[in-house]
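Protocol step 4 of 6: record predicted structures for both targets in the notebook before any analysis. Target 1:
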Amino acid sequence: MNHPIISEQCLISRDIDRHFVRERWIAYRGACLLLALLGAACTGGETSQPASVPAPGAPSNPSPMAASHGSTSAAEKTLGPVKVTVPAGWVEQAPTSSMRKAQFALPRAEGDAGDGELVVFYFGPGQGGSVEANIDRWIGQFAQPDGSSSKDKAKVSKKEVSGLAVTRVDLSGTYQAPMMPGAPERHNSAGYRMLAAVVETPEGPWFFKLVGPEKTIAKWSGSFDEFVNSIKKS
């Protein structure tokens, strides 16, 4: 049997509870707002935040200047079957394609628009074509301003370094290599120079190609000589 009086009392009690909770919530919000206003007044309207702390083991962000400079001393590096000494000042970079086994930026000379870039290629035993075919292909990536033959202007030499046959080429002109292997778009960089070397190892040839503005390559030509002459079996 229902008791109207008891039910009515329950409803009234529930309404009182709701009203009490609502009033407490309004009072709480008002107190928070008051504290926030008082805090802003004390700090001139600015809120303080804790200084950011890097997570344990997280690398700190290097300055752009530090990131753009290479090592201050030469360093030995192993490249498959050979070791080389990377000259001071060269900036090692992550290879931008799977065909590149190593990649270095050589900071530009004053007045030049870009850095030099040295790329190391290796395609495996018996792969990559003959030494002569690669030298001819590299020479074909340059045009001469006067229309003469780049092959006639190229300086090709052979030597032996630590028991390994090395073929070198030195050529200047307008650099017109494809932007990407097989791509129709090509560079059109006048006043460029290439220093390159093919090192014949028992595991197949390794290719070293340095290209950049002439002044920049002239700046680093001595370092490139040291780099090639440092090659030895690993």
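Target 2:
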Amino acid sequence: MDKHKGEPSVGALIDSDDLKYINDLYGHDAGDAVLKTFAKVLEDNFGQLGKVCRNGRDEFAVFLKRTTMTEGRAIFKKLFRQKLTFSYQGKDYPYTISLGFAVYPDQGASREELLNKADTALYAVKMTGKGTMAAYHPDMVKEGRAQLGFNLRDLAVNLPGAFFIYRADDRKILFANRELLRITECSSMEVFIEFIGRKVKGLIAPEDYAEAVESCDQQVGNSDDTVAHMVKNPYFGEIYYVILSPKPDQK
């Protein structure tokens, strides 16, 4: 930026989505493979257009010299058209990225200010679902990365009812909130997993298991009475989100 003072440039922050999930599911070697692959992808795409540098654990900064907002958007769109995969133990796995960007000098007169605006745009992407990009706009409100993490953690842990997530293919429980641990009288997630044997089946009496699973499957996609919701996750496949709160007419 100092070498091209006054000329339009674009600063972007890009990170790989759900790196923690990849580390938890495949191990830290897989997470490192994502970062190495990601770094090469960024260098291949932007190395001739500007500068790529590591900005954090799973975050990279990109500076595109002599680039306007419109030109930057077009360049970044090419990145999102690519299918991103990383290789681990002989297999290829998909991953997604999120990107926020801002333009110099209109939205940031210094490198620090430009990256701050790009971070605000990246935060906006994270709040709306990840896997896409956004240009900074003054209407964007940045409460801080810590606030995003707190909101999600607080919501999951303190839902007013028992809540858990499990994988559809093998019924393996991936997460349980504090209320479910309390109901099962488990002091921690580790104790809970040991208690139920990791599977949904361990939560339900044998004579009720088939009926409970059928009921859960039937509720997926319903509107007013839905307590279970199935989504497709790129790392875990089909997973169920289940709330065990009693319905109003059962209280």
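Step 5 preliminary note on target 2. Residues 221-226 have pLDDT under 50 and may be disordered. Residues 28-46 form the longest helix (19 residues).
Proceed to step 6 after PI sign-off.
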